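Lecture notes, unit on protein representations.

Consider one protein chain, 584 amino acids long.
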Amino acid sequence: MRPRTALLSVYLLITAPTSGQVSSPVVGTELMAYWSLDETSGPTVADLGPYHNTGIVYGTTSVQGRVNLGRAFNGSGDYILVNNPPNWVLDFAPDQSFTISVWFKTTSLSIGEFLRRGLAPQPGYLLRIDSGHVRGVIGNRGDASPPNALIQITSSAKYNDGFWHHALLIRDRSRGYLYLYVDNQLAAAPVADTFPYPLAAPSGLYIGRWGNYVYPTYYDGTLDEIAIFGSARHPDAQNPLLLVHPNTLVFPTTIVGEKSEDSVFVFNADMFLPLRVQSAMSTAGPFVALPPFPDILPLRSAYLKVQYTPITPGLDSAILSLTSTDPIRPTVSIAMHGRGVGLTTEPRIAWIRDVPNDAGRVVRIVWHRSILDIPQGPSGISDYTIWRRVDGFSYGLSPTRQGDLAQGNPGQSVAINGALWDYIVSVPAAGFQQYSCLAPTLADSSGLYGIVWSVFMVSARSYDGRTFFSEPDSGYSTTGSPYQPTTIDIPGSIPRSGSPTLHQNYPNPFNPVTTIRFDLPVTESVVVTIVDLLGREITRLYDDRCPPGTHFLTWDASGFGSSVYLVRLQAGSTVITKKMTVLK
């Protein structure tokens, strides 16, 4: 059998850009970046990983690569620039392991960068060839610019023989060493890694170029299949070859008996062999992975569809287990959660998602119909109206379910529970199970200030003059992004507001694993702990800066007995506690 390299799933890195810190929320197993370089022409090369950090091409020639096509660099001006990613996934925390994987072919004796980010004056990393020797570097340049430290590892052999070679630079923080492999063999003795700072640079990532302002140097040779993973994965490690994103699927609220679908991004990390999802088994009936299961070529990806059909109202949870055609590799698991609901007089918002390539400021709202939405009858529903909350406005009304409804004409507003809601649009009732409509948001979240949440409601008006309001839900829009799920309607779910929110864990009671969800309106210092009823901390799930948005944590209570425990969220000056029950 030919040797193979397995690169495992990773943690998504998200930084707080105002502080310079890099943190690692627990949002799942993911590939950071992957440029196949298979484009035949055009001004860009696509990042086929989940984060789509496109590279801008300056010169280069499409040629036969190690897998399909690759890119030839002429050594005098050809390079690819990935501008500083707005999602910060190419920066790494001080304790974060990572792996850089590159296929290369060259006969040059010159210095040439395979890949480089930062190092002058900000800490960063690079992988290059120098006089035939492969070299990996992390840290900051040695010219007294603090922090003044470089950690280097260089192959003893030369690889400028004109044949394809595979280089792996691995920063393994659990072992405290920097590793360099060429063609799946250690190319140098591991080097002690004591660099204590984040590898976070505001500059872009360069492929094929050292961006020295006075004397830039360029790579002379061919590159192919460049990938970055967020964990230390050595070639002989027994790791899954199927990587998945996300590792938790949360379906929107779904009417009992109806179907909701979502997809899992599946990546084949084997360097040589195609793989197939051999089986996809769910631990609960409402969730089903839909065949056919795809064949995935080496370093290629596919999407696996998963369907949720609630049988009864309430919360459903299950584990989806994926196995590959490689029998020695472990199973990959995906947590799934959904909520089945019955129809009520009030409409229910199913989900709010960004509309891609819309220049920002537009979301799509999907809602379930009112039970009164029938073709005829005096008490039936005549139309639905979308309302958007006016943030920062306090309306002096006593709390009430329906509030004081203004004339629901264009340009009018409705006051509910002390908040003012602007009229957006009305949609005639037609007896559909679900309705969909586009609505403008308060702002474009692609801007300098980050995510700006807009809160919406849907009302149903009957022919006899009654009005029924949905629970609020929230969403945001960005320029040119793919669909982004926003709030998910699960028990304890409330719309985003100006304060952090801790939701009830689910499932609850549980044995032994549960998921904890919290929402942040702004970047905060966050500590999430589990304490017993005596107030003693028994484990700490998260302690770092955390960006705005929705975040998921999992707690495995295998080592703890049946009891009531408390999950405690401290976000800035806000402290929230929820009870959880372990039943064994």
